[in-house]
Specification:
The chain contains ten helices and 14 strands. With 256 residues, the chain is α/β, with parallel strands linked by helices. The N terminus is likely disordered.
Length: 256
Amino acid sequence: MKKTTLLLSALLSLGVAHSALADDSLAKVRSAGELTIGTEGTYAPFTFHTISGDLTGFDVEIGRAIAQKLHVKPVFVESKWDGLIAGLDAKRYDVVINEVGITPAREKKYDFSQPYIASKAVVIVKNSNDSIHSFADLKGKNAAQSLTSNYAQLARNAGANLVSTDGFNQSIDLVVQGRADATLNDKLSFLDFKKHRPDAPVKIVASEDNASASGVLMRKGESSLQGAINNALADMKKDGTYQKISEKYFGEDVSH
C-alpha cells in the first residue's frame, strides 16, 4: 500500500510538472517580447490598409491594446482567410484576431478568448418605409441579398422574395432606390456604413435576438495565454480603451 501510494504521488507530481511545462504559452510570448497576430489585412473595417499602406482597423487596434496590456510588442502576420487558421496550426503566429466567430465546431479544436465583439442580423429599410417593423414583415417583400450568404437564407426563412446583389453596398443602394423593400444584413456592417455615409436615408427596424460573437483564436491548451488575454480584454473595458476603439469604428459599444 505504501509503495502504491508513493508511486501514485510521484505520477501525480510528474503530471503537474508536465502540465506546467506544456502550458508555457504566456512565458514564451513574454520571453520573445512580442505577441504575433494572424490577420487578413483586407477586411475593412476590422483589418485593412490605409491609403498610405498602414495596417489598421478595429481588430488591429484590439490586438495592439491586448499586446500593450501584456507588456509586449504586437507583430501582425497577414494571410488570406482560407489559410489564416491553418497558419495558427503551423505556429506561424500566437493568435488570430480577425473576426473569427465562436462556433461549436471551432471550439472542438481551438480555444477562444472571451468574446470581444458581437453582431446581430438586422432588417434595414429606407427611412420612409413604414410597412416593415419586424422579420415577419418581410413576408412577400423584396429583400436585396447576396444569394449565397447566411442573411439570404434568413430572408428566405422569413418569406421574402430575394433580389440578387453583389454585396452590402449594392443591397443598400437598391433599398434607397426603391428597387428592394429591405435588406437583411450584419449590424456591424451597417454601423460602419453609417459612419462613412451618415446621411444615407436608411434605418434599422428589427434586430435578431441572439448575437454572433467573435473572440481571439488560439491553440488548444494554452490556458496561461488565454487567461492573460481575457484579463487584458477585461482591463480594456474597465479603463475605457475598448469603448474608445469601438466608438471610433462603429459609433457605439459593440461588445454585446
